[in-house]
Structure formats: C-alpha cells, structure tokens
Specification:
Oligomer: single chain
Number of domains: 1
Number of strands: 9
Radius of gyration: 23 Å
Structural class: mainly beta
C-alpha cells in the first residue's frame, strides 16, 4: 500500500513538472509604472469646466494594470498608471505574453491657471508624455 502511494506521488510530481512549474508570486508582486502607449488630451479647457484625458495603458504580459494616480501642483498635473508585476525569482526565467491596451479616462477638475501642463510618467527608458493646456 505504501509503495502504491509512493508511485502515485512520484507520478503526480512528474506530471506537474511536464506541465510546467507554477510559482505563486502573489505575495511578491511589486508596484511599477505601466506604459501608456497613447493618450488624448485637449489643448484648450473652458474656465470652470473639468477636462477628460484618455489613456491607453498597456496591460497583460508581465504587468497587470491596477490604477491611475494624479498628482497636482499649481501649474502641472502628473499622471501615473500603476500596475503590478511579479518580483524576479532568482534562477527562474519568466516569459511575458502579449500585452493589450486598456482604456482609462481621467478627469481633471478646475480651478486651472491660464495654462497648465499635463505629464504622464512612463517607466524606464520611455520618454514622459507632456502637453500644455490653455484655459479660456
């Protein structure tokens, strides 16, 4: 009986290794900037009215989109698209499947100065996106 359980256990282990390892990385996910591949921001805002900015955030692959953060100063709005990615596991290669765009709409509320800058922070070597909005 014990021999049968041992053989069953070895068979299950071999089947698992044939199908690939599964590492539970949920506990080791890290927050990171997600790439914004395109955006739409109006060049003119009406005084007293909010404006909407549309972002195409890259999700999937190794990054899972989570949220958008907006930081405001007197003359600038800084937008960050945050996602999570698994922390590196030493000695384990990770293949990232294809990404896909996810549309997110951000509404910026007045009051605005005569003009202000909107910046989208991008990860790594990607240049930040920037636009100036004039208020009428």
């Amino acid at each position: 009986m014990n021999r049968d359980l041992l053989v069953l256990g070895i068979g299950a282990a071999m089947l698992t290794s044939i199908n690939g390892c599964h590492h539970d990385v949920a506990a080791t996910e890290e927050l990171t900037l997600a790439r914004v591949s395109s955006w739409s921001v109006p060049s003119v805002a009406q005084r007293g009215s909010p404006i909407q900015i549309t972002l195409e955030v890259q999700s999937g692959g190794c990054i899972t989109f989570k949220r958008v953060e907006v930081l405001r100063t007197e003359s600038q709005f800084t937008i960050r698209a945050w996602g999570t990615c698994p922390a590196p596991i030493p000695g384990v290669g990770v293949m990232c499947p294809r990404t896909f765009p996810q549309t997110e709409v951000v509404q910026l509320e007045p009051p605005f100065l005569r003009s202000f800058t909107v910046v989208v922070e991008e990860p790594g070597a990607w240049p930040n996106l920037s636009a100036t909005v004039t208020v009428q």
